[in-house]
Amino acid sequence: MALASTAATTVVSQLATDGWEQVKRAVAALWRRSDPDDPEQAEAVERELAESRAELLAALIAGDEQAERILTAQWSGRLRGLLAASPALADALRQVLAEIGTGEPRSETGAGRVDMHATASDHAKVFQAARDQHISGA
Question: Fewest C-beta in 10 Å: which of 59, 104, 114, 133?
């Protein structure tokens, strides 16, 4: 199921960002909707996402590129199972993806994409930086 695979890629990539708490809440909400009578299931998903985040961050620090692929495969399976049990959640999962992002690649610092646009005219100079910037000279 392509939706589960796309969602897993997005979820795992977003776990290493500052917005990971939003991801955790949104994904757990899907499990709550799938079985409102079993809140423990959603709480377990939240714990597993926190564990996945810790594992992913440790792997990024260690340079372990395979860990992210493994986590993505695991979450793809979990999401595929959720959608198989509750097909009506497909639209809700699409909405979650729209809310949490598209899985933009992270930089080494774990930050997401930065878009900057500038226009200069005449003799103007434009300086842009997504991080520190040091300008010397006249």
Answer: 133
| Burial call 4-14: b when 16+ CB within 10 Å, e when fewer | bbbbbbbbbbb
Gap between the Cα atoms of 26 and 4, Å rounded: 15
What average pLDDT does range 104-133 have in this prediction? 65
* Half-sphere exposure of residue 58: CA atoms within 13 angstroms, side-chain side: 8
Q: Tell me how far apart the alpha carbons of residues 83 and 77 are, in angstroms, rounded to a whole number.
A: 10
Q: What is the pLDDT of residue 114?
A: 61
In 1-138, at which residue ranges do the beta strands (DSSP E only) sit? none
Are 2 and 83 spatial neighbours (Cβ–Cβ below 8 Å)?
A: no
